[in-house]
Write a structure and sequence with these properties.
alpha/beta, Spore Coat Polysaccharide Biosynthesis Protein SpsA, Chain A, seven-stranded mixed β-sheet, Rossmann fold
Length: 621
Amino acid sequence: MIAFVYGTTAELIKIAPVYQRLVAAGTRPLLWSTGQQAEELPATTARLHLPEPDFHLAEGVGGRSLERPADVPTWLLTVVRRATAHRRELHEALWADDRPPIVLVHGDTMTTVVGAVLGRWLGTTVGHIEAGLRTNKILEPFPEELDRRVAARLAHVHYTPGIDKFLNLRGVGGIKVDTVANTVLDAVLSVPIDESAVIGGVEVPDRFGLVSLHRFELLRQPARFEAILRSLAAHAVDVPLLVITDAQASAQVEALGLAHVFDGERLIRLEKLPYFDFVSLLRRANFVVTDSGGLQEECAYLNIPCLVHRNTTERTEGLGGNVVMSMYDIDVVNRFLDDPSRYRSASSVDFPSPSDLIVEHLVSAGHCGDGAPPAGGRDLSVIVPAFGQAELIRSTLLSAIRELDSTSLDYEIVVLTDAVDATNYEIALIGSERIRVLHYADNAGQARWFKYAFAQTEGKIVVYADPTVLMTAENVVRAVDMLSQTGADVVTGSKVHERSTVESSRFRRLQTDLFSRLVTSLVGVPVRDAHLGLKVFRRDVLEAALPFTRAAGFGFDIELLATAHEAGYDIEECPVAIPGRMKTITNPLWLAKAAMGSLRLVVLRYRMSRREGQRTTVRDA
């Protein structure tokens, strides 16, 4: 399941195109709201034709939007309290469709960080839309720059609006997907051109400039704010200026005694407009003066001359073209206002849809969409869990491809990653059509990700192969050959097989032997090494056994073998070759984990006894 976490109108506007494309593709994502702008969100939600939130993490502060820093602690406390109280409900909603869940956040607000933390806390993948923006100045803008950096550390998947943002994340782990542009492009283009004489209660002049000044960095500098207003008033002679001010900017205007510069004819002061009305004005404006990076971006996409009145910007869109940055230099402002039309480019750039690119990635990673190939289309499917395997995965997969190419089998390799390191990058360097990569949170549990991976395979024979075993790819071919030659239903690799080539200490062999005896006595699996990461199944075995297998981590493969054995399927062991010397487990922590594993076997035995008479056997089939 996909869940969007948002709290501001800007976030909602920019995720709306992605949400709508997902719905059109047959997926209904979840909407979770923090209510950071509680008063503005309902109207924006209705105008965008989006449903109400599925869950309210908070509704602002007492039902109103956050207005001052003192509101933040109360708001955060509400978010934490509700998330804690409803954790199970949220968790179950994310896992409702058995697809790998992902929590998507957007931008650089406090909600962005809250949503990313929530996704991590719920044990799911976190995707950050509009990732990689940087001014590289922690206080400009604040707290947005800090929010971006924190979100980058929490996210597993980064959707970057341009290759320059992609490069800003070179030191950050996870998957980077270049969406070329920001999803605001799709949002702006979705607003129809409005030729009305009056928009949002404003009589629209034939020619006009649009002004939006509201950032904290500007408003806290009265001299700078006054200088820009006086410059605007001086140039609003031939072309009137529509100046949009929010509550904070209006308060500063009154505090500085500058209300008189707005004469209502040349310099026209407007309250903050709803998004659709604002974009309708924007698309008809001759030029724009703003301190907003988002508005800079929109102007770049629409090819509207734009002055950005800031010292620095996290966006590169339009710079050197139709966008000019003032660096708070009033002379630069005056030169721009003298002739804004000279900054309009002769031709505009045709951007691809960033929302389409995001949805394409979500589908390819298995988070949504159909994507499941028909069963039985190939001879062999190899499932490889590669959580944190960046160092070895490329050489391991290349070895597997070379070995499998030497057979006559039509095969595929399905690799599962958790998108937290460079594993995906290393796999991409191979460039093989035989490999498909799926994303799944490692801590979701082996039963979940294996069931999902199996649903995405199409082989008549399915192999589960741990990268350590797959490093010697002959192990897989040998096990598959044994399945065919003996007529067995399941073949499992065994370190203690007489023909295995495994170097280990006597104590390690004793540990394996004792654990195998415990497995056999408790759950009846007739093998001497049930826990090695190499198992080969006929497809019908997994179809019969997986629905009864529930172990989340340790014990999953043992329960799977036990369930298959109970159902009457034949299980055989085959030799393996493992390079290097296997470590002896002497660490007290590992020994404690082994003891807990033994206790889980007792629980498994109890659960299996409770379901006797309910299982499907070969004879029943």
